[in-house]
Amino acid sequence: MKYRRLTKEQLEEMHPEFINFLATQSITAQEWDDIKANKPEVAEEEIDVFSDLVWEGVLSKAEYLEHISSSTMNLFKLGEKEMELISIMVGDELIDITTAQGYKWLQNNLLDDTVKIFTAQKEYGEDPNADKFKLIETGAVITKGELYRYFDDLMELGKENLD
């Protein structure tokens, strides 16, 4: 298995897709019930293959990831050949940017001495989707990129004001 098995809840949500997946392998509902009852290891393998296919599709379409903790915000833009990172760290332990109040403080105090902003770019390894998956496994979530674009735009404005 390349990624990880979908959770029971995820599999239930994808029931129609799983039925189609079985159908592409010419496995009928009756045959599937027989496989589950008499060859559970084969059923497990089919679920693993399906999970990998789902993950592959999701990861290929993902454009942004976010990993946010109380003091750090890591925002990733997933390009074709590399990922770009905007990392924001708040050094004041009293500020929790996962709360509405803490995030508002961050927006209003980006130039505060306790706020550090870094950017980086990194080329993917041999398998871009595996690199993305590692980030998800460590707590990142797929997003539409609003936060990334917000901070990217702010940094562009800051650069223009310096010129």
Automatic annotation (TrEMBL):
This is Histidyl-tRNA synthetase. It comes from Nonlabens spongiae. InterPro entries: DUF6495. The lineage of its organism: Bacteria, Pseudomonadati, Bacteroidota, Flavobacteriia, Flavobacteriales. Pfam families: DUF6495.
